[in-house]
Amino acid sequence: MKTPPGADGNTPDGPREPRSSRWSDLGRPPLNAAALRRGLVREGGLWSEVDVVQRTGSTNSDLVARAAEGRAVEGAVLVAEEQTAGRGRLDRQWTAPPRSGLFFSVLLTPGEVPVGRWGWLPLLTGVAVATGLSRAAGVDTALKWPNDLLVTVGGEERKAGGILAERAGDGGVVIGVGVNVSLKADELPVPTAGSLGLAGAVSTDRDPLLRGVLRSLEEWYGKWRDAGGDAGACGLQEAYVAGCATLGREVRAELPGDRAVVGEAVAVDGDGRLVLATEEGVQEPVGAGDIVHLRPA
Q1: What is the separation of C-alpha 218 from the centre of its chain, rounded to a whole number of angstroms?
Q2: pLDDT 10s digits, 250-292
Q3: Which of 168, 138, 135 is nearest to 60 (CA)?
Q4: How far apart are alpha carbons 197 and 159 in whole angstroms?
Q5: How far is CA 139 from each of CA 133, 134, 135, 202, rounded to the nearest angstrom?
Q6: Residue 284 burial class via C-beta count within 10 angstroms: exposed 0-12, middle 13-18, buried 19 and up
Q7: What is the pTM of this model?
Q8: pLDDT by residue (tens digit) across 119-170?
Q9: Residues of the chain with pLDDT > 70: what percent?
Q10: CA atoms of 183 and 101, how far apart (whole Å)
Q11: Of the four listed, 121, 124, 148, 198, which is most buried by Cβ atoms within 10 Å?
Q12: How confident is the model at residue 90 (pLDDT cuts 50, 70, 90)?
C-alpha cells in the first residue's frame, strides 16, 4: 500500500518540522465529546448538554455568563481541556497542563430546595466526586472541609482537586470542579499537590472518570433535591462525615475579618457547617473560612 504524502511525518520537500498539536501528547488524549453526550444526556436525566472546549479562562465564569444570558439551562455541563484562569476559593489560581485533569462546571437550579440549604451543594459535590473517582479510578479520596479533595501519595496527604460554587442569577448555582488526573511529580504546581496518577489510580482515562463523576453527582443531587435539601434525611450528611478527613483533627479556621479560631473539628452540623471545640470549651460552628489541618487525625 502506498503511503499518503505526509503520513510518515515527512513532506515532499523533506522531513516535517515537529509541531505541537492537540494530539501531540499521546499519553493525554482529548476527551470524546460525542461519546460523553451519548453516555450522559438522556430523556428524564439531569444532564441536558455537554460541551467540551479546547481552552478557556474559567469554565465557571463562562457558564455563569451563559446562564445570565439565558443560554444555559439546568444540567448544562461545560468541560475544558485547558483552563488558563481557573479559580479556587479565595480567588486562588488553579493551573495544570492541557488534558492533564478534569476541569468542568455544571449548572444546577434547585428551585424546590430552600435557599438556606444550598450551602450543602459544594459538600454534596465533594461526596459525589469522591464516590465517582473511587469507582472509576480505584483511588481512595478524602474530603477536606469544605471543598478540597485529598489523595495519599507516598504516605502523605496531598490535595488533588477542589470545588467552587458560585451563584448564577436568582435561581441557579454553577459548581466548578478541578481534579488533577495525570499530573507527574515534576508538573505539580506546589509540593503539597497530588494527582490520581501519583496516588496509584488503576486508570487515568478521563472519559470514564468524567462519566463516573457526573453520574454520581446526578445520583446525589437527585436524592438531596427529593428530600427538599435535608442532608440528614437523604444520607448526605452521614456520607460527608464518613469521608471527611478534617474531623477529629486540630485545625485553624481563618475566618473573614482576619479572625482565626483554633480547635478540634468535632462535627459537621445540619447546615453543613464545621463545628470546632475550642480550648475555652466552646463549640463554634464555622460556615465559611479557610481550614488548616494542624495535626493528623
Answers
A1: 14
A2: 999 999 888 999 999 999 999 999 999 999 999 999 998 889 9
A3: 168
A4: 13
A5: 7, 5, 8, 8
A6: middle
A7: 0.89
A8: 999 999 999 999 999 999 999 999 999 999 999 999 999 999 999 999 998 8
A9: 87
A10: 8
A11: 124
A12: very low
Q: Looking at this protein, which amino acid is placed at residue 211?
A: R
Alpha carbon of residue 99 to chain centroid:
15
For residue 151, give the C-alpha cell. 489523595
Task: Enter the C-alpha cell of residue 69.
Answer: 444570558
